[in-house]
Amino acid sequence: MKMMSSRRLLKFAIFAGTSVGGLTLAVNKFGDPDSIGVIRFGRAATTVLDIARLYKRTLYAKKFDVESAEYKELRSKVHTEGAQKLLALCRKNGGMFVKVGQHMGALDYLLPAEYVECMKVLHSKAPESSLKDILKVVKKELGRDPADLFDEFDPSPVGVASLAQVHRARLKSPAGSGKGEVVAVKVQHPCVRSNADADLKTMEWLVEETKRNIPLELDFSLEGHNAEKAQDLFSKFPWLKVPKVYWDLSTSRVLTMEYVEGAGQVNDLEYIKKEGIDPFLLASRLGNLYSEMIFRSGFVHSDPHPGNILVRKKGKILGDVEIILLDHGLYADLTEDFRARYSRLWLHILNGNREGMKKEGVSMGIAEPLYALFVCMVSGRTWDAISRGLETTKFTTDEKAAFQKEIPNLLPQISDVLATVDRQMLLILKTNDLLRGIEYTLKTHQRMASFRVMLELCIKSYYNERLNQSYGSLERIGVSLELRWMLLRLYVYYALLPLQRLLQMVPSMNSLHVASIRVIADRAVEFLPKLTSSASW
């Protein structure tokens, strides 16, 4: 009989609490008590202790059989109560606390469902500022009364995030020209800048990285330039929309952009089903977009939580979908050297090359004993799945449970990895987590469509690096042929994979014809593990 480990649960409670709990200490000069660092820190510390006591007086009160219905029911109840306490803290403190809560709300594949469901509301329903305060910011930033700029300004925000909220508005129309254009006006919360300074005082391994990133996110003019750069870089995707910026009505604290009508959040399954959107096509396009960002352009949108990715039906083609990318405040700029190392790391992971994984991990700042944990963090898979081969091993509920079970025990080691890893990797890890959460919500993770796209671009990135380092036409021809052979094998593998799965569903069919097809399909799906065997990774 399996018994409950109280230390493990305590660690999880501390993990859930300290994910947002160790953020503030400094006192600022504003009169609002919620802007005083000591009060915010005290509130966070109290919440952490409350959550820990909750687990101690319930799940720790006696020994449980973890497989029993009694334990599972109680565990769910405790998780829900703990999550509600955490959500209340995020709402009360706002700012950085909401950002961390949003991240937790996207980790469907990792955290207990009760925490994820509770935190999801922060993706579009974070604490909002009053209309009076918002209009004060608009007037201060644009230097004019909002009534002189807008014919309409919706008092209710269409979306509220951690750092700002968005209002639908209509521009003043030139005399005799009819109605003005409808725009989305993003306005920074009044106290978020000062609170951010206070919250950053007690960050640990995240201090330096967050200190670099938060000021960037608080400069809305930079966000506007990022949006335009993304539009230029990814214009090859006709299904991607980045709203245009109205620069004459934008400053560092107010950003006015095109208003996009008729779209739903990427994780709104009811909306996706109602609109007839193909979730597998959606997942594939998301994978394509982010693989392009990571492996080719090096310009990576690093806050892809569901509130920042909208979708809507595109044209009249059945299942077609348009992706609208919002909130361009935070991008990672990856160097060519980092992208090459990251590509090699993924190919070593896919090939099961432990020495290669270790070598690339060390090159990214990871201590040798922690390379396996680092690989699990990058791939979002258990070491057992990696050892058996990711290309043939689907992410299952059992693997999710194993992940959730072990994470609390590995927090010190995870902290060590995050403290020493190449700073470029931090935003990639966050981005990977959020994208996996979206794919898990869409229930498309077992099809591995985005995995195929990523693998293709990963292979191309690796071979392009080799081409750039090649001397002489013969060597370049050899590398080019090797690249084409690798891609051919990949395409054959994925083309025959559905056939292999179909034949696995009808094992009782004994005809020679079907048996022959099954052999061909089985041989085809063995290609991928061998893709890397002939290459000098």
Could you outline the blueprint of secondary structure elements for this entry?
Elements: H1 6-21, H2 37-58, H3 69-93, H4 96-104, H5 113-119, H6 131-142, H7 146-149, E1 150-153, E2 159-160, E3 164-171, E4 182-188, H8 192-199, H9 207-217, H10 220-233, E5 240-241, E6 254-258, E7 264-265, H11 269-274, H12 279-297, E8 299-301, E9 309-313, E10 321-325, E11 331-333, H13 336-351, H14 354-363, H15 371-379, H16 383-388, H17 397-406, H18 411-420, H19 423-442, H20 449-468, H21 473-504, H22 512-524, H23 527-531
Parallel strand pairs: 5-10
Antiparallel strand pairs: 1-3, 2-3, 3-4, 4-6, 7-9, 8-11, 9-10
Helix pairs in contact: 1-2, 1-3, 2-3, 3-4, 3-5, 12-19, 12-20, 13-14, 13-20, 14-15, 20-21, 21-22
Describe what you observe in this structure:
There is one protein chain. By secondary structure, this protein is α+β, with helices and mostly antiparallel strands. It has four domains: 6-122, no CATH class; 124-261, Phosphorylase Kinase, domain 1 (2-Layer Sandwich), CATH 3.30.200; 262-469, no CATH class; 473-531, no CATH class. Helices cover 57% and strands 9% of the residues. The strands form three sheets. Strands 1, 2, 3, 4 and 6 form a five-stranded antiparallel beta sheet that branches. It has a four-stranded mixed beta sheet with strand order 5-10-9-7, covered by helices on one side. A two-stranded antiparallel ribbon has the order 8-11. The longest helix has 32 residues, at 473-504. The two termini are 46 Å apart. The model is unreliable at 1-38, 202-207 and 507-537 (pLDDT under 50). It comes from Ladona fulva (Scarce chaser dragonfly).
